[in-house]
Specification:
By secondary structure, this protein is mainly alpha-helical. The chain is built from four helices and no strands.
């Protein structure tokens, strides 16, 4: 049950962070919006904070899981991959193909990496507690 809630928490984290970052970026750069075409530097910035959102979702998953963090991070990434395919098809005309391809290729490994980092943190913490 803990694994399910770990993945669910990571799954909820990603869109909260990504949508919040979208709104913040729109406030800084008003030309960026839901119906605008993104390219060049704007697309790179959106990819960076979207990737961070995925990493953080994996990290949250790993923190809650306490075991099998990387596997759960991969599961979270696969769910994100499947959802991204649908969203990318619907929004294909809003950005260049490279933007969508990079997003799809990185979602699973970035999510697993976030979960891995959380797992390493948990291992260090338990080692310190056991050594005390």
């Amino acid at each position: 049950m803990r694994s399910f809630f770990a993945v669910l928490a990571g799954f909820v984290t990603v869109p909260i962070i990504a949508v919040s970052a979208d709104h913040a970026f729109h406030a800084i750069h008003p030309a960026f919006g839901p119906d605008s075409y993104i390219s060049g530097g704007t697309a790179v910035i959106v990819l960076l904070y979207s990737t961070f959102a995925v990493w953080l979702g994996g990290y949250i998953t790993g923190m809650i899981a306490r075991s099998r963090q990387v596997m759960l991070g991969v599961i979270l990434g696969c769910i994100g991959f499947l959802i991204s395919i649908v969203v990318d098809i619907l929004l294909w005309h809003h950005a260049a193909a490279w933007y969508y391809i990079i997003g799809l290729v990185t979602v699973v490994p970035v999510s697993a990496w976030g979960a891995h980092v959380a797992g390493k943190r948990y291992e260090r913490k338990t080692t310190l507690i056991a050594g005390s």
